[in-house]
Amino acid sequence: MTNEERMQQANLIATIRAKLPDSAKTCADDTERILLHQDAFAPGYQEDEYMLLCMAIKYTGLGGKNVHLIGKKSEHVCRRRQNSSKKHRRGERCAHVEERMWKLIFFLFILEGVAVAQSPFDGTWVNKGVGQPPLGTASYSLADDTLRCSCAIGDIDIKADGYDHKSHETDYWDTLNVEGVDARTVVLIAKKIGRTMFTEVDSVSQDGNTLTQMVKDTTEAETVTTVIQSHRVESGRAGSHSISGTWKAFKAIRSLNGSLIKYTCTNDSFSAETALGEKYTARFDGNFYP
Fold first, then answer.
1. Is the pTM of this model over 0.70?
2. Closest CA to 109 of 46, 13, 21
3. What does the pLDDT look like over 10-54, one tens digit per residue?
4. How far is CA 85 from CA 80, 81, 99, 220, in A?
């Protein structure tokens, strides 16, 4: 499985757990067969719920469960009973019981599995903007045990000897630790008051034309991982580390927990909450909320 496929699978799992938590719990137990009634999804033929149904089936299959889709109620059973006048009332009761059963299934999979939105903003959203590669170029020079770079996090000029060194202080770090592990790999660790905030592993491909940077952000309760790939634009000076030169990013993938945000809109306020526990609420009263 490729890294991209792992990210896609993580996206599927997170979406189902967020939108269908009860169904996700059912898939986690010893149940071998999962029943899905066709009216539990897209009763009004909503296109977004078609996608949710497909994702629910895929999620169930990942857990090794058997999925049984139930169509419209079995009217032919009742018709057979209605053909006999002696069992006419029993047939009506059959239809009534079946109808109640479908309503119960609908309730279990919709009312308990998916919160009924009160506004078009309500729900969990994926911020696709955080997966866009950085604009512009980044320049690195690693020579004479010193890393100099001009990139997204700013200008850096620091010893690359594997020890913590004081750097210009930011909200997220006050020391940097840089080490050239081998001819194609550099590790950078950023700390704030001794706590590791970011860990970055930079790897140059064997042909020297692709840079892959895996950044682990540990500033929140959960680690957010971002992978950025860049093409070489310009080579570094002779004798320097292979990371030296100018690079331009062309691809970025961020773990789902760093891309999800849940919005809730009420009559008097609007709130947002990320999967990492960050929360924000503003009231509709004309005041500024920082």
1. no
2. 21
3. 666 766 766 676 777 777 666 666 766 666 666 666 666 667 777
4. 10, 8, 22, 69
